[in-house]
User: What shape does this take?
Amino acid sequence: MAPHIEGSGIYLRGPAMADFNEWAALRATSRGFLTPWEPTWPGDDLTRTAFRRRLRRYMRDVREEQAFPFLVFRADHVLVGGCTLSNIRRGVTQSCSLGYWAGEPHAGKGHIGAAVRALVPFVFDELRLHRLEAACLPSNEASKRLLLKCGFTKEGYARAYLKIDGAWRDHELFAMLSTDPRA
Assistant: This one.
């Protein structure tokens, strides 16, 4: 599974079946808050069976080094959100994509920013990638601020880039290179 990574006031680790109740409760409580920013949730998304399927997919992705999913916890072991490094590409690209979410009660408190900053050395020093990419909806000011504060550079605009909340949506594109100064 994904490694344990320490950050400032938080830690990240791969999800486990024992996380289901806390994860499902936080996602359910935050559903209205998260829906505008995420792909449409499957009807059974918050069930134990769907979580088990998710974990099997995660284990395969980590084993094949295609993705690293993490849950983000405060230092007092409270789940606050998640981060995923996905679409890991080797060869001449040496890059991956970053996705993240915060449960509504924990949004805007710096936990996800701390998690993203903690992931940067893992991406560049452990995975030895050259480029870390992220995208967000143009209306998501909080996400844009987070990325810029973490050292990402805005690189462009992609029309109809990802299917979010049931529709193809434009996104602003951000990236960080292994050679960039670290926040």
